[in-house]
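WARN  no MSA supplied for this record, continuing single-sequence
INFO  ligand: uracil
INFO  echoing inputs
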Amino acid sequence: MDARRRNRYLEAIGIDVWVPRPGNVRVLPAADAPAATGSAPRAGAQRASASPEPVSGDLAARWGALRSEVIGCTRCALHATRTQGVFGVGYQQADWLVIGEAPGAEEDRKGEPFVGRAGQLLDAMLRAIGLSRTSNVYIANVLKSRPPGNRDPKPEEVAACLPYLLRQIELLKPRLMLAVGRIAAQNLLSTDLALGRLRGKVHHFGELNTPLVVTYHPAYLLRNPADKRKVWEDLKFARRVFRQLTQGIPTDGDRS
Ligand code: URA
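INFO  complex generated
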């Protein structure tokens, strides 16, 4: 199905399609790809249409082993109420890692992150900067099990589940992390600051000091569509940070 038809279909079923203004969006042509300096990008880093480089058998096996652990996990009480653990989805060598909060009802049913309405909006947001879960981004959540009624994760649930995310990050070694929503941002950055205060800056995460950018959760955007403009600013900022990273340009600082 072509993009126009799909957008018409999504709108018909009540999904607000993310269509950034013309001229703002550009899937990077090869000539725009980061310079092949010391830290060259991995294949599939920027172009949603490029076929990703195959993942080696060893790496795929390590991802598979971790997935099995998560699917069978009983570390917190949520295992008793979930349908299944929701591990993550995407290219296992992606440069970009998107991190959300926890599976919702649809994700719990299907076993894949961000497949409900918010997920469709997330896909559209990512597509606007040339990213796709099928080729160059990995998507995971802080929690791998659905909290009943979509309540906020409890601290003990986060404490039990975060080591899985850390191991996903260790396998992926992303160049850039994008935290979507307050819960993901606050837990990853160990802060109580409001999301508005965390946007527009490059934070750093974990032992690898991975650059991390924050934006609103797509579910929030479904409720507050006027803030799409802010998210578009955040996505452009993240894309700029990523380009700087691949060109060896320091990324500390904020949007200004
Ligand atoms: N919201 C999230 O944060 N993650 C999902 O996987 C789905 C909705």
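DSSP finds nine helices and six strands in the chain.
INFO  checksum written, moving to next record
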